[in-house]
């Protein structure tokens, strides 16, 4: 789709043009809005966390106002997506997660992550060793949250574009602190 590829290429002019062509050809506006919402999570992702709420707001605004004024909401969203920093890191990460989920469906939830609302569950060590992050310095623990077969797996690798640079810097700092915690044991 030319609109999607123009937004991905950071071309607001091409994005507006193809949006206009679609609207003038009476393309289903819900389909157009759905494409913009999808683009916000698939191609912009966390590089700009405001892209998804803006896309959803544009869809709702169009639904509320209708044409022709509502078309401006879609145009605003298309230009925003075209000019937003881009990252498909979350998209790729989730693909990796789905592959591992399909291959590890039988892996048990680690005991320390299980709630223990009954005495029997407590006797079976459900919840034993759980570390409540708010009780720790920097709100970080050395506790693993993946099944044992995936304990060292990293899925999300921020791109370094837009807000993902901040996320990447934060994760790098946290991972170093967690490594230090584990070395102390």
Helix-strand blueprint:
Elements: H1 2-8, H2 12-24, H3 29-44, H4 51-65, H5 71-83, H6 89-103, H7 119-123, H8 163-184
Helix pairs in contact: 1-2, 1-5, 2-5, 3-4, 3-5, 4-5
Description of the molecule:
It is a single chain. The protein has 185 residues and is an all-alpha fold. The protein folds into 2 domains: 2-83, Zinc Finger, Delta Prime, domain 3; 89-184, Orthogonal Bundle (post-AAA+ oligomerization domain-like), CATH 1.10.3710.10. The chain has helices at 2-8, 12-24, 29-44, 51-65, 71-83, 89-103, 119-123, 163-184. Helix 2 (12-24) runs antiparallel to helix 5 and helix 4 packs antiparallel against helix 5. The longest helix has 22 residues, at 163-184. The protein starts with a helix and ends with a helix. The model has no long low-confidence stretch (mean pLDDT 94).
Provide the structure class.
mainly alpha
- Which band does the percent of strand residues land in? under 5%
What is the CATH C level class of the largest domain, in words?
A: Mainly Alpha
Order of helices and strands: HHHHHHHH
Please tell me what the overall shape is. Answer: elongated
User: Residue-averaged pLDDT, rounded?
Assistant: 94
In CATH, the homologous superfamily of the largest domain goes by the name DNA polymerase III clamp loader subunits, C-terminal domain
What's the short version?
The protein is mostly helical.
Q: Main traits of this protein?
A:
single chain, mainly alpha, Zinc Finger, Delta Prime, domain 3, 2 domains, 8 helices, 0% strand
